[in-house]
Amino acid sequence: MHLRAPIAAAIALISIAAEFIIGFSPEETVVNAVLLIMGEGIWRIIEVGIQTFFWLTLVFAIIERADKGKDQHPLSPSLKPWTPDDLKNIPYIPKKKAITKFEVFGSLMWTAIWATLYFYAEHLMAVYKGGGEGLEFAIPAVNQDVLHEYWPVVVVIIGLEIGLALYKLLQGQWTKRLAIFNTLLEVIATVVFIIILLTPNLLQPEFINYITDLFSITATQFETWFIGSIIITFIVYAGISIFDGIRKARIPSE
Q1: Measuring CA to CA, how many Å separate 156 from each of 51, 114, 160, 199?
Q2: How confident is the model at residue 2, as a pLDDT?
Q3: What are the residue ranges spanned by the domains of the chain?
């Protein structure tokens, strides 16, 4: 029973990701999109938690009223009468090895954010200038057609990230299999996004000209610095994630 609420919340976050990717409005800015996803995600988790608590309480109340048997001893997960010896069967999970629900929900929310940024990069990753009604879209930073060439493999990575988050939720702790899954996903995702970043014509010429004029540098210098910084960030993040997963998986359970 203790997994039903987290699983319901995870499904809610996945549905939010799908809703934002499919029904995103191009007029939104990056800040607004991120805040909307986070706000909607937090509210949906609270709503799901309240509904789950209500229905579970109602179901247990009905079961308790309907159960007129003489044996009032609680049942263990094996459906046998519970005894103090069942406490020995509860696995001990070290704090540093455990996977918190917050970590799982954070992973799902991050997947929703970067997936939205990817599929609507032309509108979100752009130069905005102040106007009479606030920030106004001026120059797109990336070529959306280039990104769309890789959408099938990106969708696979999104599915794998969701699968990894749900696997973490069910396991509740780092294991060797989970660490291997995480390592493979990080390596695949990093390689794919490096290939995307190195694709010619990824950046819009207007954006490159705007930045080079703003900072008085050449187009080659800007592209090398910009693309190189993102690639290094991807590699460092993947390395930290892989190392952390393997380290936690090696922590003894007893």
Answers
A1: 32, 14, 6, 19
A2: 47
A3: 4-249
